[in-house]
Amino acid sequence: MRHFPIFLDLRGRRALVVGDGEAAARKAALLRRAGAEIVPAARFDAADLAGCALAVGAGADEGDLQALSAAARAAGVPVNIVDRPDLCSFIMPAIVDRDPITVAVSSGGAAPVLARLIRARIEAAVPPAFGRLAALAEMFKADIRRHLPDLAARRRVLERLFTGRAADLVFAGREDAARAEFSRALAGDAPAGGMVFLVGAGPGAADLLTLRAQRLLGEADVIVHGSDVTGAVLDLARRDAERIAAGGPEIAALLLSLGRAGRRVVWLVAGEAPSSAEEAQALTDAGVAFEVVPGVRAIA
User: Fold this and answer.
1) Beta strand 101-105 with 94-98: parallel, antiparallel or unpaired?
2) By the 8 A CB rule, do 202 and 271 touch?
3) How far is it, in rounded angstroms, from Cα 233 to Cα 226?
4) Domain 1-92: assigned CATH number
5) Span 88-140, pLDDT tens digits
6) Exposed, middle or buried: residue 185 (CB in 10 Å: 0-12, 13-18, 19+)?
7) Which residues sit opposite 245 in a β-bridge?
8) How does pLDDT run across 56-84, given as a tens digit for each residue?
9) CB of 266 within 8 A of CB of 174?
10) Which residues are paired to 57 by β-bridges?
11) Which range among 109-113, 160-164, 276-280 shows the weakest confidence by mean pLDDT?
């Protein structure tokens, strides 16, 4: 590992940005998003470095960049000169911002374009709902520590919350219900029940499933599916997941029974989205949480 990854708290701290042009503006905007107070300078002046927590150079004269790098290193101020790793004491990574979750990807300056491509893949796999889930956990942080002083017990409860119904509710946009689930877990009560996902499998090819559908298949306890769902799609489900081939009027009762039993259920139907009015109404009436996850639309 050439560079040691750290995350700096820049809130309310000064950050010197020397130079002008698009690169300097991008770096200034990024630092400002992290709460830094930007000190802009077209040319380097050693006096500007005083009190700065970090310095960046981009689009300035070579002499200014060299001087900035040398002065910052001498003062112990982290410095980054864009596209000049020889003048840097730290590397600016490609960032996935899911505040308060932050993912940083760096190639150590060897292949920045590759780092950005990896970032794009992570962004697709880590939707913004993960940030909302982390923010919810932060709201309960003090209560969790107070109610669960034992580290192992705390970890078990948090893993259940982050991978179970509470997380599902956050992803479904039902954050009030997710907060109730956190409170219930801290009180030691049993979970309120399972969660049912009404998922459209799209045109049929496994590689046309949405990322959301793929994740749900990998996490579900039970897959309820029609005969028109292909084997290639079902192969994406968890190996130990129960598979139930079903259709017709009994679907609503089946989904209701599985949801009440606390199971994570995916009802998988070929096409853009399940015809879910009857099933959704039955789940709503019974108080079982559900979410409709549309599939990819087939193009004629």
Assistant:
1) antiparallel
2) yes
3) 12
4) 3.40.50.720
5) 999 999 999 999 999 999 998 888 899 999 999 999 889 999 999 999 999 99
6) buried
7) 225
8) 999 999 999 999 999 999 999 999 999 99
9) no
10) 18, 81
11) 276-280
Identify the CATH assignment for 195-293 out of 3.40.225.10, 3.60.130.10, 3.40.50.720, 3.40.1010.10: 3.40.1010.10
* 194: its two tokens: 């399972």
Q: What is the pTM of this model?
A: 0.71
- Tokens of residue 245, six digits: 């081939």
Closest CA to 247 of 226, 264, 262: 226
Q: Is 168 exposed, middle or buried (0-12, 13-18, 19+ CB in 10 A)?
A: buried
Is residue 169 within 8 Å of 175, Cβ to Cβ? yes
- Taking Cα atoms as reference points, which of 100, 185, 181 lies closest to residue 144? 185
Which of these, 202, 240, 198, 201, lies nearest to 219 by C-alpha position? 240
What's the rounded Cα separation, in Å, for the pair 38 and 127?
Answer: 29
Tokens at 191, concatenated: 């979970």
Q: At residue 193, does pLDDT exceed 60?
A: yes
User: What is the residue whose two structure tokens read 């789940």?
Assistant: 283
- Where exactly are the structural domains of the chain? 1-92, 93-126, 130-186, 195-293
Q: Which token pair is 34?
A: 């992290």
Q: Please count the other Cβ atoms lying within 10 Å of the Cβ belonging to residue 299.
A: 5
* Fold classification of 93-126 (topology level): Double Stranded RNA Binding Domain (3.30.160)
